[in-house]
Q: What sequence folds into this?
């Protein structure tokens, strides 16, 4: 953008001396207009897990401490598992006994079926071994003998108790299997393992402590997927949206990292004087060795126009809606002109009508 100077004469002192002040003008040109909003933020893990024991007990060992990096599946802490181990052993024994009873019941049922078949044959032969033709009538004595023989055969060695012994045994096996599974699950619950790779951020106990099931004992942060949490004032928050790009500059570092807005809180919080809105940004490429709680400078691009007619933002005054005023240098004195403005950026303002490329305007007035 070209820069020129124009002279303006004005009177000073009572001696009517004159002096010439130089005003700087610039030419309207084509280029990019960008608008960024900035604030401070804090580095934090994208995911934090609260880990607990699945059962209550006494802490026997803690394999990590705050700040340690762990891999998925690493053992982090254990409880005294003597009682849980004994319950698994007892449940295993009861299951084996139930399976033995089921095998015996099935054997008895098979034998009873064979006996019933023999009785049926005895009944058909009238007890004498010769088949009785269908519809044939037995003599009274033979009929009584046949019924007696069948009854004795059916009950001999396998008394009718009125219960299905196989079904009862199967139910006992099922119950024993459930009890064993619960005991094994309780034993597994005496150990906390890392569900993801990350960094230990907190441990809320020590060896020898009594803990309850479900109470958070270890905090694990996914430090391999870090993000930045920032608060923007209400005036800037209205222009923020998910998907916008930005940069993050870490404290004590001159290097900036690309980031993207992944969340804008729909409701702000007030400190009594200012309403602020929370925003989360994710790194495009997560830098190594980030620290949880590390401070950062955050800048988000909320507007951008490329290859448009522009002038310095300081050259545009009295902006109301899409209208503004510039001082055009066309002769001895600059002349005010109303123009139509587009995007008002940090350094430049887009001019959509009322000014042509190359025209000189006062940079600041």
A:
């Amino acid at each position: 953008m070209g820069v020129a100077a124009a002279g303006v004469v004005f009177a000073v002192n009572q001696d009517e001396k004159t002096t010439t002040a130089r005003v700087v003008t610039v030419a309207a040109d084509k280029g990019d207009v960008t608008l960024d909003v900035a604030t401070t933020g804090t580095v934090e893990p994208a995911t934090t897990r609260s880990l607990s024991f699945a059962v209550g007990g006494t802490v026997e060992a803690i394999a990590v401490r705050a700040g340690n990096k762990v891999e998925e599946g690493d053992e982090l802490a254990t409880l005294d598992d003597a009682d849980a181990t004994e319950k698994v052993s007892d449940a295993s024994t009861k299951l084996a006994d139930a399976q033995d009873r089921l095998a015996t019941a099935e054997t008895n049922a098979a034998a009873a079926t064979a006996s019933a078949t023999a009785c049926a044959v005895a009944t058909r032969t009238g007890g004498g071994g010769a088949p009785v033709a269908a519809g044939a009538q037995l003599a009274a004595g033979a009929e009584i003998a046949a019924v007696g023989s069948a009854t004795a055969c059916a009950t001999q060695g396998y008394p009718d108790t009125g219960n299905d012994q196989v079904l009862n045994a199967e139910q006992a096996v099922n119950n024993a299997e459930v009890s064993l599974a619960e005991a094994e699950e309780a034993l597994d619950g005496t150990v906390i393992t890392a569900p993801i790779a990350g960094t230990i951020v907190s441990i809320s106990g020590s060896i020898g402590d009594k803990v309850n099931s479900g109470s958070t004992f270890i905090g694990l942060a996914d430090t391999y997927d870090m993000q930045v949490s920032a608060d923007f004032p209400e005036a800037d928050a209205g222009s923020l949206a998910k998907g916008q790009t930005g940069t993050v500059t870490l404290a004590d570092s001159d290097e900036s990292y690309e980031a993207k807005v992944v969340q804008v809180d729909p409701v702000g919080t007030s400190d009594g004087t200012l309403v602020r809105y929370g925003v989360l940004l994710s790194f495009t490429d997560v830098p190594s060795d980030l620290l949880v709680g590390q401070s950062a400078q955050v800048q988000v691009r909320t507007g951008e126009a490329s290859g448009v007619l522009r002038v310095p933002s300081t050259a545009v005054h009295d902006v109301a809606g899409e209208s503004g005023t510039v001082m055009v240098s066309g002769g001895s004195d600059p002349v005010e002109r109303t123009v139509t403005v587009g995007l008002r950026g940090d350094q430049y303002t887009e001019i959509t009508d009322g000014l042509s490329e190359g025209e000189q305007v006062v940079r600041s007035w």
